[in-house]
UniProtKB/TrEMBL annotation:
PROSITE patterns with a match to the protein in the record: HIS_KIN
Organism encoding this protein: Sphingobacterium alimentarium
Catalytic activity: ATP + protein L-histidine = ADP + protein N-phospho-L-histidine
Descriptive protein name: histidine kinase
Lineage per the UniProt record: Bacteria, Pseudomonadati, Bacteroidota, Sphingobacteriia, Sphingobacteriales
Transmembrane segments: none
Coiled-coil ranges (or none): none
Pfam families in UniProt: HATPase_c (PF02518), HisKA (PF00512)
Amino acid sequence: MGNMNLRDLQVIEKVLDMTCDTMFLVNRENICVDVIMKTDNPIFNPRVNLIGKNIISVLPESIRLQVEKALDYSRKTGETYNANYDLPTDEKMYYFKLIVNQFDEEHLICQYRDITQRSNMKNRLRSALTALIEVGKVAMIGLWSFDCSKEEFVLTGYSNIAGHNLEEPLQISLEVFLRSVHPDDHRPLCDYLFKEGNEYSRFEFRVVNSKGVMQNMQSTKYRSYLEKNSLIIDGFSQNITDLIKNRSELEMLMKVVEQAPYSIHANKLNGELVFVNQECRLQNQIPDDLDLSKCKIFDTLHFHGSEEEWHQHIKEIQQTNGFLRYRSTHAYPQRDIISSECISFIIPNGIGEDIIWTMRRDISDQLRYEEQLLKSKEAAEESERLKSLFISNMNHEIRTPLSAIIGFSDIIAETDDAELRRSYGKILSSNGVQLLRLVTDVLEMSNLGTGKMRFIPNLISLKRVLQELELSFGNLTQIAALVFEIPDEDVVVNVDRGRILQLLTNLINNAIKFTPEEGFIYVGFTQTTAGIRFYVKDTGIGIPSNKLELIFDRFVKLNDTDRGTGLGLAICKSIVEQMEGKIWVESKVDKGSTFYIELPLIPISQE
């Protein structure tokens, strides 16, 4: 290399060019007499000719006085003046440093340095630091440094114990710090501090602040290093009291949702399941260890049969502004569920993805109750109908014999003819018997309805029962031929004799009513594996098929003109059912009918 001489003029110019932004020489009147221009801003740039101009007049008005004072100070004292200035322009704000030196008795040399980039960086750092301090204050974050050898903290930033930002770093021993820590957390906190090799580890503990309020803290290590053979740990602590509270509330809420008596589930629009609670798992028999993220709603939950149905369901929810109320009739027999009331709604998750939540409430008991109410209403209406029918029917049935009794009583009182009196007396007796039968039927039906009917079983001979009935009906004339099929071998059973006679009498009277005089009526019994079966068979008019199921109901008559209350067969049915037996009829129109009564045998006591 050639010899370099700093005193060489060319070398001096090169050094000045490399080390100086802009330099200008001014006289006593602050007129620029020479300039080296390297900056480029609206005021100082190579396109502006400063020579011959007052340098003060070129500057913005806001800084003229400051620069003028700097020049006067250096001119009077001969000392170097160094200061930073703002340089506002229409484009933006610039910043510069001005260094003023006395060059000779007539001139000052001014060195202009552009510090805009550096100033902007400082402003950004200052703003970032201010924001960091404010964030730390709002987030209640404090910095700490712990010297493991001295067992001493240096705290900066926000102090959760004091409840404010620390103006200066606070030096505090571990012993003093632990006085604010919950006793149960002393040992775990010390283990956390003195354990090596766990940077970025976190630890939660509790402290009591200056107001005596318990606070939850989370401390995080972020650096550890040796300084003068002592291990230093740096970290920060944040108050997480609200977070713990929110977390506890969220855990409680999730527990409520998980154990709710309703089926609750959530899924994405594509059908992927996100959440199912316990009741939903039970209804759909979903194992607890099943990975929901791999399950689709239409493959896992029973009430969505296909993917097409699921997408149609989504459309219905979207068409109702994301909230749909509906009823599902899908049954879950294992949970005794026959119907559910459902609500489906859309709620975006934390990343804005739409999640469909559905709640299904079991309304089976409500439907059963409504069905029971409907049946009760229908029963009440039927009872009212039967009551009206009964009153209408009894009005006619009672008036007829009463009118005959009253009318023929007056005639008998005015008749001296003995033969007429006997004839009219028979009519009175017949109508009296009919009236008594009507009253008896009504009382029987009333007793059966209130459960007051009593049954007294005794050992009786069925052969004698038929013989007794044969004698009772033997004096009747102008009726169908009554044939009592009495077996040679007697059968003794333990049964209520009076009720057997009542049942057979009702059935025989009913057969007589609907069998012409040239017909036949057969009465008898047989033994079966279930007990004793009585029968009354006639060759009468028969019963239409559409009335076979109704014939044992109250007030039902084959013909509305028939005499009677329509209670006879209903009474028979009630008596038989209370004796734990059954009664039925087989019939064909114009062929006749056969009524059967089957009663279980009551064991005969051996005493």
